Amino acid sequence: MKIALAQLNYHIGNLELNSKKIIDCIKTAEQSNVDLIVFSELSVCGYSPLDMLEQKDFINKCYESLNKICSFTKNTAAIVGLPTINQNNRGKKLHNSAAFLYGGEIKKLLHKTLLPTYDVFDEYRYFEPNDIFEIIEFKNYKFAVTICEDLWDEQRTFGNFDREMLYKNSPLEILKKHKPDMVINISGSPYSYNQATHRQEILFKNAIKYSLPIIYVNQTGANTDLIFDGGSMVINSAGNTVLKCEYFEEDYKIINIDQLNELPPIKNINISPEKLRIENINKALVTGIKDYFYKSGFSKAVLGLSGGIDSAVCLALAVQALGPEKVDVLLMPTIYSSEHSISDSVEMAKRCNVKYHIINIEELRQKYIDNLSEIFANKQPDVTEENIQARIRGNILMAFSNKFGNIVLNTSNKSEAAVGYTTLYGDMNGALSVLGDLYKTDVYLLAEYINTKLDDIIPKNIITKPPSAELRPGQKDNDSLPEYNILDKILFAYIEQKKNAAEIEEITKYNKNIIDFVLKLVNTNEYKRYQSPPILRVSSKSFGFGRRMPIVAKFN
Amino acid sequence: MKIALAQLNYHIGNLELNSKKIIDCIKTAEQSNVDLIVFSELSVCGYSPLDMLEQKDFINKCYESLNKICSFTKNTAAIVGLPTINQNNRGKKLHNSAAFLYGGEIKKLLHKTLLPTYDVFDEYRYFEPNDIFEIIEFKNYKFAVTICEDLWDEQRTFGNFDREMLYKNSPLEILKKHKPDMVINISGSPYSYNQATHRQEILFKNAIKYSLPIIYVNQTGANTDLIFDGGSMVINSAGNTVLKCEYFEEDYKIINIDQLNELPPIKNINISPEKLRIENINKALVTGIKDYFYKSGFSKAVLGLSGGIDSAVCLALAVQALGPEKVDVLLMPTIYSSEHSISDSVEMAKRCNVKYHIINIEELRQKYIDNLSEIFANKQPDVTEENIQARIRGNILMAFSNKFGNIVLNTSNKSEAAVGYTTLYGDMNGALSVLGDLYKTDVYLLAEYINTKLDDIIPKNIITKPPSAELRPGQKDNDSLPEYNILDKILFAYIEQKKNAAEIEEITKYNKNIIDFVLKLVNTNEYKRYQSPPILRVSSKSFGFGRRMPIVAKFN
Predict the structure, then answer these.
(1) CA-based angle B492:B497:B498, to the nearest 5?
(2) Residue of A nearest to B386 (CA)
(3) Is the ipTM of this complex over 0.90?
(4) What are the structural domains of chain B?
(5) How far is B536 from chain A (nearest CA, A)?
(6) In A, which residues are within 8 Å of B395 by CB distance?
(7) Residue in A closest to B10 by C-alpha
(8) Chain B residue numbers touching A154 (CB-CB < 8 A)
(9) What three-state secondary structure class fits B242?
(10) Mutate which of B113, B128, B226, B425 to test chain A, going by most A C-beta atoms within 10 A?
(11) Considering only CA atoms, which of A356, A433, A368, A435 is closest in space to residue A395?
(12) Is A158–B93 a contact, with Cβ atoms under 8 angstroms apart?
């Protein structure tokens, strides 16, 4: 039996586009005598439609799409994902379902059992868990169809205290009574830089535990903050990968499941995990930018180039995503800007082949100071005046955006966002934060990777100079913050690993005062991050939708 | 038996403050020979701590607080709410629990069964539902203790299609086998202008259905966007209210449950529902402002007075919440500002007795235009130049805030936020949106109410003039938008009632083009609202945390 894995890039709510993509693949499969083609979780509507799921019209359209797709199935059967209405009298209104289509008929609807409701996932907000465990019998094969998290029955609970198992049951453990020949998992699993390996391990473990091959189909592409990396694959019952789709690209591959044991295991490419991590972060962020623009109908970006490493890396990513002709950069010096901040930026813009515009904002800065001089009489300059500069730049970028239709890319990194070393309505402006989930030390690694890949596109001086916001004479980031290698270790332990101050001290051996200082900065800047643009998520715990902290609260 | 209802205002994460408040009440109760004192849901930590619940230290501190509180119970027993650790091997790590404390001992922990996971509620993100149904036996009485949503077993699912019942079981239906004498419900139920009546109906219905009296204890005060209205009460088994705590205030009342049937029913005050609604909105917003400042340690506010109704109402609310001496207002005219916008604002500031500062921003505006003239050469003026004005004002407000420590209040209303008739990083600035959940037509009603209450504090001309953003010559809101009475009806049907275009046409009889135009504006402005300040929630569907729409998506 030939099964096709269709790894596509769906657009949330764009049911016409999604069904066209799905139907095109079904037609292709039909032509090459594929028996079954498998699409990913919620492929009909895109993952995740969030509260669009509460709209009647939206659900009706999903059913319409399903019927249309179904009408194109002839000799090739298909499995697609969509929300369906719960037929029971009580419980959540919807199921997160897999529809098995064959010969123009909806043969079966199966539902997701384990509904992730943590981090960026809110599935229990919408869906009732499955409690009927059926399998699909098709052409002498029995398929245990599972949906994404259904294979993650050993998922741990958050945090690091006490018990660990999040779910109370295991769909495969229940389904095995039907003696399936194979597991199919349709997935909407977003990328994070530790997810790809973890996911593969889960699949291996399940294949070996149940002695069953697994066909895993994930989506690719990005929907605002969530980036999907694809990596669909087939694992044989010995736990070896025998087929693998590309990462961060649409892909379509066929496997003959009668010959699974004859296929040689695919070896992992010979690359260090750390190098692979950075390479994938580059791919993820490029995908994130590209799809934000493509799916929202924009093509041109603008960003402010400061001469620092963040805006340089952001530009290099934007150029990879959109092409140099679609990116404008603005240089907005004041009296506090160093000579090299201009010259490095100009050099960077030239190497990237993008249009740059120098708008000196010194007079504007001065005009604000004059305008406020009466009301600020007898007050010393402080962070107010620094913020004014950042906010003028934010305004100029938005004016450029309003006038020419370029979308502003935000260039702040995760370290800054964590400690609030950013100006609200200034350098926090933008439609999309490109680096907001990347610690400063990772931004450096990414810069080096990009320079290897793109022929030293980032001038060396931008990478080697000490980080500075240049908002007052001689300012350096480490005047107010610990060095980034220290800061980032503390932040990672606190945010990603959820360690407390004592544990962080134990792990890092850093001074307690420094740790307390950093944690306090993180906690007292929730109000700023609340108003941040959406952040492209590449870690297991990004600021934004997946990390919900109260604003008005007393922290430790 | 004497039972005390303790309706307190808790501060999330401020375990010391909360336990001090609880202990003080226990001591008071002890002195007046109260048998049992009841506090509200998650009273130990405040509702809702959100992802603070994922921190080990936080949970440990909740247990420490519980032990401390417990040590103060002697002859008076107490019921408090807190998160506790799920002792089962599998499932969510925590329960949302009620602890029954007596004689210095934790006698019993009971858990919440129905976990709201919709709108602003994410309880299943953290909590495992209860599946052990026990009651508390104390001094010859049997109490069925329920937690908030546990009484809402007939909660409907969202939207308006198909089936309606959200929950699969009914805690009271199960608990009745124990033949309880009374129901206790500890609650963390936020205010919305249709919630108070609905809540009372649910309590009446349950009392009558089970023929049991109900003691209902809710919290009061606000935590960022959520405002709790209190209104704790006792219902007898005939469904009559026999005791009622204040709304929007801390309160403490004692009832003798041996005499429940002898107490006369409390009549509802004789006020029209619509008048009561506006009166409560005023109370809610004042509470929201007051607690935002108090709980985040700030005392002073600043806002921009435009001469329009929104900023005037916002000022009147801020003055009620913080006192006139704690509020500064800025008037920031340009060449497009009408004469009356200044004179009305000055008059408003004087009537409110607040400090006002006139900062003419015309030269700054001109300076931006000059600065951008080269890059904007051959481009006609458009919304860019209008936004520049709004953003200068935003900057000046933030500069004032940075220099003097006054927190910026955002003055946009819900109608504007819905259709994106606001400037990101301009008039969308602020730490807290005061009117962001109030449609423009309700802002007018609130203005009239405030003028009745506060001796015409808002000058008549501010209420009667046609709404205008004054960002270009002769501009009026209804140049670009339908009249607000039409707009608001469409918005309410779409946002609160989740109707689709065809249904809205059916309800309102408005022109289809107008409806489509409005819905399109709502859908295409998700990106703006994503970066909005937190909004004080007064409706059943506020923008922000309770309404989660994808940004990059195709809508109808």
Answers:
(1) 105
(2) A399
(3) yes
(4) 2-259 (3.60.110.10), 275-477 (3.40.50.620)
(5) 13
(6) 368, 388, 391-392, 395, 425
(7) A553
(8) none
(9) strand
(10) B425
(11) A368
(12) yes
| Cβ count near B493 (within 10 Å) | 23
Tokens 């609260």 belong to which residue? A553
A88 → chain B, closest CA residue: B163
Distances in whole angstroms, Cα of residue B464 to Cα of each of B308, B344, B412, B461: 10, 12, 18, 5
Which chain B residues have a beta carbon less than 8 Å from that of A160?
56
Q: Are strands B327-331 and B355-358 parallel, antiparallel or unpaired?
A: parallel
CB contact under 8 A, A12 and B550: yes
Return d(Cα B180, Cα A177) in angstroms, integer. 43
How far apart are the CA of B65 and the nearest CA of chain A, in angstroms?
14
Instruction: For residue B447, give the nearest of B432, B437, B466, B462 by alpha carbon.
Output: B462
Calculate the alpha carbon distances from A265 to A218, A242, A251, A515 in Å: 20, 5, 19, 46
pLDDT digits 0-9 by tens, B13-46 = 999 999 999 999 999 999 999 999 999 999 999 9
Using DSSP, state whether A153 is helix, strand or coil.
coil
Contact between residue B314 and residue B286 where contact means Cβ atoms under 8 Å apart:
no
Chains A–B, number of C-beta pairs less than 8 Å apart: 283
How far does the CA of residue B140 sit from the closest CA of chain A (Å)?
36
Question: How far does Cα A449 stand from its chain's mean position?
Answer: 20
Provide φ and ψ at A220, rounded to 5°: -125, 175
Cα B47 from chain centroid (whole Å): 12
Each residue's pLDDT tens digit, B388-447: 999 999 999 999 999 999 999 999 999 999 999 999 999 999 999 999 999 999 999 999
Residue matched to tokens 């080269």:
B374
Q: Which residues on adjacent β-strands are paired with residue B137?
A: B142
Instruction: Compare CB distances from B364 to A368, A394, A555 and report the shortest one's residue.
Output: A368
What three-state secondary structure class fits A313?
helix
**CB A85 within 8 Å of CB A59:** yes
Q: Is the pTM higher than 0.90?
A: yes
Q: Which residues, 6 or more positions from B125, have their beta carbon under 8 angstroms from its beta carbon?
A: A117, A118, A122, A124, B117
Q: How far apart are CA A258 and CA A272, in angstroms?
A: 34
Per the CB < 8 Å rule, is B372 touching A48?
Answer: no
Residues of B annotated as catalytic are 41, 112, 148
* Distance of alpha carbon B526 from alpha carbon B552, whole angstroms: 9
Residue B498 and residue A55: Cβ atoms within 8 Å?
Answer: yes
Cβ distance B54 to A165 less than 8 Å, yes or no, reads: no
- The pair of structure tokens assigned to A103 is 């010969």
Span between the terminal Cα atoms of chain A, in Å: 59
**Is the Cβ pair B550, A165 closer than 8 Å?**
no
Contact A552 B90 (CB under 8 A): no
What is the rounded distance in angstroms from the CA atom of residue A37 to the CA atom of residue A166? Answer: 32
Burial class (CB in 10 A: 0-12, 13-18, 19+), A269: exposed
Q: Do B548 and A122 touch (CB under 8 A)?
A: yes
Q: Calculate how close chain A gets to B489, using CA atoms only, in Å.
A: 18
For B93-105, write each residue's pLDDT tens digit: 999 999 999 999 9
Nearest in space to B73 (alpha carbons), one of B26, B17, B20: B26
Q: Which positions of A are annotated as active-site residues? A: 41, 112, 148
Q: Are strands B327-331 and A136-138 parallel, antiparallel or unpaired?
A: unpaired
CA distance B79 to chain A (A): 23
Taking 70 as the pLDDT cut, the residues of chain A under it are: 158-163, 556
